[in-house]
Protein 1
Amino acid sequence: MAAPAVPFYGKDVDRLARLSIAYKALMESETFLANWPVTVATPAVFKERINSYQSAYEAAINCDRRAIAARITAGEEAGRTWQKIVNYACSTEQDNSSLLEQMGALTKARKSTSTYPPRQLYAPDLVVVNVDQRGGVRASCSRERRRYTYDVQVTEGDPRVEEGWYHKASFGDCTKMDMDGFQSGKDYSFRCRMIGRDNSLGPWSLTVTIMVT
């Protein structure tokens, strides 16, 4: 099959969320991972480039020109790696359509005669609390806990400044979203949104700000 173009567009936070979903789907496909060719970047390399993009994005929050240039380069590298993996998935003899859908590179076709409209994504009811682990928190939402992927973003500055938000983690179960690596005694703001199976993005939750212990 012809390889589709990966949906690598929009804001950096949206790109990072899609990359994380693609990597998670890739790692859960044991059959596809077997006999990986030496000519294609490995999943480990893909993960390294996602991490590099995440780090470069966070470093560029203060609008330093060099940091912004590094962020652009890192983003392009991650996007190209994602595209090469998708190209490889489309070149094999096995049908990888399901994997491509999970990676967000292929939209599942819907019959126009369907009587069931797509489920509307809503803003999650986010709660964030401290846990016993130093520098750790637990976020949760009460409904639809396994139907979607949940994208959690964090900012250390003014939550009204969009450029300060960055992707922290993605979860399949929103009832127990544990995160760590925060600085104790510092205020952090959190927000969460649902990501549908077709890679559609839901609205953000209300912002929750806490001092991490």
Protein 2
Amino acid sequence: MSVAKMNRTFRLGIVSAVAMGAIFSFPAMAQQANDEQDVFPFLASKTHCLSEEDALKFSQEDEKCTAKQFFISGSWGSASGDFKESDVQREAAELGFEVFDIDIDDTRSAWKAVLGTNITENSFIQVGYTDLGDVSAAFSTTTNEPSRFFSQTSRIRPTSVEGYTLSAAYQFLRHEDWFLHAHLGLYFWQGDYDSLDVFEDEALLQDLDDEGTDLFYGIGANWRVNNDWVATIEYERYDLEDNTTDLVSIGVSYLF
């Protein structure tokens, strides 16, 4: 009878030990499963590229992430140039005309889209398309040579263009939720302009298309919304050949 009690006690001890082991091991197993599924950079980043610190944290192999992690971004903002009334007066005077009633609209909405990928943990390359919006300039003169006035002054205007971008960027001051970045690149732009005789309400038939390649650069602050989305506020300067244009924008990036 005492043997039976000992066997029953022994069996109950085994069951209790297994139950206690399961209770204490379940959180560890769950944590391990979460770590395996939630393999994202510990510090906020433009992509999912893992640093050596991240790899150690998640018990992952530290691999080069060149062209393995990507992001796509869209931004909207306000662009403005440095074209002034004095520029119109100076350029017109060089052509032999005195102008007045000058009206310049050089602040406008702009947008851009970007696709990027990592070169290293903190540097990446990106291609995109930027539209710097529409501008206008109107002015009048008194002349006996209206044809020469229209033909020679049609290029006196602010610069606003659109085109493709290619840039390299670097992210720094990374924290768990935010980081900064800076970029430098080339802007392959094209501008289409219309010249109008406002008194006759007549479009002037002239080829005013223009194109070129210039530098642009910028700096931005980023906030990691979650593992797949990043919000950005950014300042950029486009060093166009006619006049410099600044762009301040807000946008979002999707990481994949």
